[in-house]
Hints:
Number of helices: 3
Number of domains: 1
Order of helices and strands: HHEEEEEEEEHE
CATH architecture: Beta Barrel
Distance between the termini: 71 Å
Structural class: alpha+beta
Largest sheet: 8 strands, antiparallel, barrel
CATH topology: Lipocalin
Strand content: 35-45%
Number of strands: 9
CATH class: Mainly Beta
Strand order of the largest sheet: 1-2-3-4-5-6-7-8
Shape: globular
Amino acid sequence: MKFIILSLLFLLLASCIFCAPKAYCINRSPVDTLDLERFMGRWYEIARYDHRFERDLEQVMTDYTLLPDGTIEVVNRGIDSRTGEEKVAHGSARTTPTTGRLRVSFFLFFYSDYNVLALGPNYEWAVIGSHSPKYLWILSRTEQLSEKSRNEILQQIAQRGYPTAPLIFVNQERD
């Protein structure tokens, strides 16, 4: 009986220690099913966590193209809100043995995990994360999401342990 109580106390203590930094409590596992061909095409960035390589960008969109060799061409573009200049980044992605996880590179052979965390039932929206809890994106096939879809996505993100307050909602309005 003492062993059981001590074991439970140890497990409780270990969970407190490991979940104290919230990053350990975030579920970054990808979706169980991903139809890669349906995922291809244009996606508009609805929201993201702030990071230096997209800072001050608005009207952000990404085009994914499946190439004959099985790799994926990735083209990100957005407008710098300070200068009005278009920024374009060309990258590539490849599939992994884990469904819903791609490896994406925008620089030489340095690849990062690209986890499709959630998808709308008709691939009308997607939530993308990484191995790091510092990266999160909400994407949509259209420039705007309905309030219902947006609330559903924010709820799913929160249930995974991601904070929603830091999300930057991207201006998609065109001149």
